[in-house]
């Protein structure tokens, strides 16, 4: 199913030189001399070191000195506020020439003010970059990026009043007429914040059909004044493609679409070569293509909306290929059954060859350069994330950087521009930290950590835990180990992921880190039905909600307990969405295993899940009937696997959490579960919030987790720390004196 990766460098190897370069041109300190958990990386941020030259002995001495100072610094476990603070560096991006860097900065805990800033740095002098912070007071900025080296684009969201009548909004299964809508729009400005111009601000685009006017189809690297943006005109309502001037805001239509057109895609020359149209009944998506020098659009594929929402749909446009008449698309390999990256020919209307396919696992993502729209790397993951880089020279540099940062670190080249590489370096014990790497000098410069408040926090280690299911299938999960268990086995929180066609990753997980900081071991099993391990593995979970999937989770939990890694008398199961469903089924299936259950936005009634989808979206029915079950043919199984219908069998306290604006799992699912538990006389707490399914609001999510940790402390409390030792000045080296009994006839009176 999955395979363990092997290190590409031998232990004790003192330096790495890319093949084909002069000896000594690229020299890195020994990986074994710098611990793989990256104390040097943390020391960089704490000591304010700005430049590191990758040069053997000098780096080694500096690294050991910083590591020693790092160990002397006081550390403590992260708090809820630390883990869910807004990022200090968000969406960093180099300008096309590589000379300028921008990122969004949000105020940090303890700082005054609550406005975001747009930070712009001139990197002409890497040792002393000139930095400007542009305040974004009163603006709800969604993203920021470069149009060219002079102009910056920012997406701003705002509430707009509907001038002509009402707009239609679908919420909680009901249709509402509203006179206000949320809209996003792009503002172009100079890199010093001057000369702002709102794009697509012409009256013809002022329609409720244009709720999202911040979509950019092509940055047109060969045309510094223009970008391509899709928009619907007020009169025709068709989604056309416009050439927009980033200095003046002037527009000219480049391509005419249809009322059912949903998206546009271009080739390296900026020619529109692919588009997506909804079918006449809006139940499926049509893929239309044309040759780069042609005019006739041809329909080459149609798939359902449910397929379109999955990564494994056919011919999903990903990036540009080298050839003008080709694109790179996600597709499933018929040989391996795994998702890969393929070349698609518009002229042949077919796949013409793979770019990258792994025989065991699906690709997780393709990172695309924002200007060229070409892929920089493919990310895939077996037990831990890995990247594949086509550019051999860049791959050799990354190999050396891997030895420097440590084998446990994921190094992602976010962008290459002007001889500089923008790096994101992360691990399970370190959230994103950003660096600039200069190719010619083989030198790396820290930009900063995304979450600086975690630099002096003691984050928990994550281990890969293999186990065997009851039928012999090899599985694995992730164990997040609490930093301190005070000499006792820690309580265990089982955290199954959502989906179920999703997966957990070997990376920084703030929820698992929060629970570990509270003293809990966290187990995240990768059960059958999870995405990422090939089509057969995902489909092995079909019709197994509450069945084989639940068995895989149980087998992993019992293996952890059998290995004496956690306290078998203190086990709780907690999950979101499908994980919330699994948390409710756990104590039903395993009455002796769990002491409590927490379901956040979880499904409780499989009949309601399927029938609600039937009423709202016919296109999703085929998938739900296969993955969950048919309400008539599979009625007996759906009833047996619906927690709300078996609430009387739950013998542990239950915490339910759900957002009233949830559009994925109906809020009524938790209401029904609460009612069933109360009717059965069970211990249940239901805490509602104003959020949606994915808890986009950071404060709402943190509040929810506050309730989770309080619930866990009541039902499976972690071990208490031992009493602190007596201070040295209270110690008495004199021998203890025996108490002398006082004669009864002696009366003591105060003086």
Fraction in beta strands: 25-35%
The CATH class designation of the domain at 462-715 is Alpha Beta
Q: What is the alpha-carbon Rg in Å? A: 29 Å
What does the main sheet amount to? 8 strands, mixed
Global outline: globular
State the share of residues found in helices, binned by percent: 10-25%
Distance between the termini: 85 Å
Q: What is the CATH topology of the domain at 462-715?
A: Rossmann fold
- Total of helices: 14
Q: Averaging pLDDT over every residue, what do you get? A: 82
CATH superfamily of the domain at 462-715: Alpha/Beta hydrolase fold, catalytic domain
GO molecular function, one term: serine-type endopeptidase activity
Protein name: S9 family peptidase
Region (Disordered): 1-22, 715-751
Domain Peptidase S9 prolyl oligopeptidase catalytic: 508-695
Your description of this structure?
The chain is α+β, with helices and mostly antiparallel strands and 751 residues long. Helices cover 19% and strands 31% of the residues. Among the domains are: 121 residues, no CATH class; 254 residues, Alpha/Beta hydrolase fold, catalytic domain (Rossmann fold, 3-Layer(aba) Sandwich). Helix 1 packs across helix 2. The N terminus and C terminus are likely disordered.
């Amino acid at each position: 199913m999955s395979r363990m990766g092997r290190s590409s460098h031998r232990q004790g190897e003192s330096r790495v030189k890319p093949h084909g370069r002069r000896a000594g041109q690229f020299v890195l300190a020994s990986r074994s001399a710098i611990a793989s958990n990256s104390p040097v990386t943390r020391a960089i941020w704490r000591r304010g070191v700005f430049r590191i030259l990758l040069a053997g002995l000098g780096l080694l001495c500096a690294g050991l000195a910083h590591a020693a100072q790092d160990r002397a610094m006081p550390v403590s476990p992260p708090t809820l506020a630390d883990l869910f603070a807004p990022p200090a560096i968000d969406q960093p991006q180099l300008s096309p020439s590589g000379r300028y860097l921008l990122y969004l900065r949000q105020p940090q805990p303890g700082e005054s003010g609550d406005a975001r800033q747009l930070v712009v740095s001139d990197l002409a002098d890497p040792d002393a970059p000139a930095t400007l912070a542009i305040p974004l007071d009163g603006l709800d900025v969604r993203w920021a990026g470069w149009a060219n080296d002079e102009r910056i684009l920012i997406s701003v969201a705002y509430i707009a009043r509907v001038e002509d009548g009402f707009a239609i909004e679908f919420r909680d299964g009901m249709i509402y007429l509203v006179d206000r809508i949320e809209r996003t729009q792009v503002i172009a400005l100079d890199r010093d914040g001057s000369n702002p111009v709102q794009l697509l601000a012409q009256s013809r685009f002022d329609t409720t059909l244009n709720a999202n006017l911040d979509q950019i189809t092509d940055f047109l690297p060969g045309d510094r004044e223009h970008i391509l943006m899709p928009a619907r005109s007020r009169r025709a309502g068709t989604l056309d493609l416009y050439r927009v001037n980033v200095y003046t805001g002037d527009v000219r239509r480049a391509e005419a679409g249809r009322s059912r057109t949903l998206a546009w895609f271009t080739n390296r020359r900026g020619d529109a070569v692919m588009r997506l149209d909804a079918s006449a009944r809006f139940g499926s998506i049509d893929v239309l293509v044309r040759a780069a020098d042609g005019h006739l659009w041809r329909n080459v594929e149609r798939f359902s909306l449910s397929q379109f929402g999955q990564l494994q749909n056919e011919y999903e446009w990903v990036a540009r290929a080298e050839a003008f008449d080709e694109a790179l698309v996600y597709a499933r390999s018929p040989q391996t059954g795994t998702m890969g990256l393929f070349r698609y020919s518009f002229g042949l209307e077919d796949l013409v060859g793979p770019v990258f396919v792994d025989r065991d696992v699906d690709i997780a993502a393709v990172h695309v350069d924002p200007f060229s729209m070409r892929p920089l790397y493919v990310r895939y993951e077996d037990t831990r994330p890995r990247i594949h880089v086509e550019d051999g020279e860049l791959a050799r540099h990354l190999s050396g950087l891997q030895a420097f940062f440590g084998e446990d670190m994921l190094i992602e080249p976010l962008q290459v521009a002007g001889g500089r590489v923008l790096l994101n370096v992360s691990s399970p014990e370190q959230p994103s930290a950003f660096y600039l790497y200069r190719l010619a000098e083989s030198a790396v410069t820290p930009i900063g950590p995304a979450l600086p408040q975690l630099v002096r926090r003691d984050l928990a280690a994550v281990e890969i835990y293999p186990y065997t299911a009851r039928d012999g299938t090899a599985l694995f999960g992730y164990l997040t180990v609490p930093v301190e268990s005070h000499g006792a086995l820690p309580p265990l929180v089982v955290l199954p992921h959502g989906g179920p066609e999703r997966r957990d990753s070997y990376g920084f997980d703030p929820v698992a880190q929060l629970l570990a900081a509270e003293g809990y071991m966290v187990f995240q099993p990768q059960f059958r039905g999870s995405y990422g391990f090939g089509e057969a593995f995902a489909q092995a979970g079909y019709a197994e909600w509450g069945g084989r999937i639940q068995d895989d989770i149980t087998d992993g939990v019992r293996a952890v307990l059998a290995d004496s890694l956690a306290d078998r008398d203190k086990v709780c199961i907690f999950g979101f969405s499908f994980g919330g469903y699994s948390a409710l089924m756990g104590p039903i299936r395993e009455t002796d295993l769990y002491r409590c259950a927490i379901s956040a936005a979880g499904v409780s009634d499989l009949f309601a899940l399927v029938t609600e989808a039937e009423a709202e979206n016919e296109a999703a029915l085929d998938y739900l009937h296969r993955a969950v079950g048919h309400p008539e043919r599979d009625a007996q199984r759906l009833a047996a696997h619906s927690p709300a219908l078996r609430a009387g069998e739950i013998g542990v306290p239950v915490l339910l959490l759900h957002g009233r604006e949830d559009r994925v799992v109906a809020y009524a699912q938790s209401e029904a579960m609460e009612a069933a538990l109360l009717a059965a006389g069970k211990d249940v707490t239901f805490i509602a919030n104003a959020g949606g399914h994915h808890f986009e609001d950071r404060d709402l999510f943190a509040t929810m987790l506050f309730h989770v940790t309080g619930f866990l402390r009541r039902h499976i409390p972690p071990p208490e720390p031992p009493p602190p030792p007596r201070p040295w000045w209270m110690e008495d080296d004199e021998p203890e004196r025996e108490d002398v009994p006082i004669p009864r006839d002696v009366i003591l009176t105060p003086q």
